[in-house]
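FORM 7B: Structural annotation worksheet

SECTION A. Query
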Amino acid sequence: MGKIAFLFPGQGSQTVGMAKDAADHDARARAVIEAADERLGFPLSALMFNGPQEELTLTYNAQPALLTASIALLELVKAAGLKADYVAGHSLGEYTALVAAGAMSFADAVYAVRRRGELMDEAVPAGEGTMAAVLGMEAEALEAVTNEITAQGDPVEPANFNCPGQIVISGSKAGVEKAGQLAKERGAKRVIPLEVSGPFHSALMKPAAEQLQEVLSGLVIRDADIPVIANVTAEPVMNKEDIARLLIEQLYSPVRWEQSVRTLLALGVDTFLEIGPGKVLSGLVKKIDRNARIYAVNDLASLEATVAALKGES
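SECTION B. Predicted structure
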């Protein structure tokens, strides 16, 4: 077997009930979720298990909830004897990856992403910024569109390079709408508005990045035990100073997910294990390399099936 990478999802993968069966049946998962409630000072677990979905989806709730659910499931993956050669996470998922790599404690990370969500929410008042997925358009052509609209006074830029033919744009509401329209006129197949509360991974997040720097400077970031593929550079990082700097830049820089997966493939990874709610990243990896072996662990049943498959191959 080649090398294995653990992948951790970002915002959009949250669902009511996530990690509940793990917490119900395993003390290790339960301990993670209780630790989150304690560090945040409110019952995040009640929101994760019972909803409502609208409240769970608010960025400052979704971020700590996804991190917590993913780490609870990671504890079970580790207990089953599975180890990663590399880790990566999409946006918020990068914090989960850093916990998995030993660069941050879970308690610090869950506090950091709660504050990150609050700062992102405060940076641009709700309704003033947004994001949209553009399907079926090359990166250069789309960047020409966003540059044109931004030059006209409505800021918009590429925010997530997810997989071939899927790029998310982010910016002011008017900028995203105008860029979406122009992209369609220039050959984009579809433009799908995203249900997000702000223009994440765009220059409009720079005020939040300055405040996030203060938050992170009060926490302990260590050198990673295994390489983490950073969203900003799509390259492996292990040094604590680099990790801290890239987490700040990540807030206003595009997530280079497609390139991150290609980096992992070039490093010899042939097995990807998505750990956390949903299967969004599994779908993206499949579009980047249809030959990659991809498993998603989002509950106890999928964990058992994955362990059986991987132990069978080794």
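SECTION C. Observations
The chain has a mean pLDDT of 96. The chain has 14 helices and ten strands.

SECTION D. Sign-off
Analyst initials: ____
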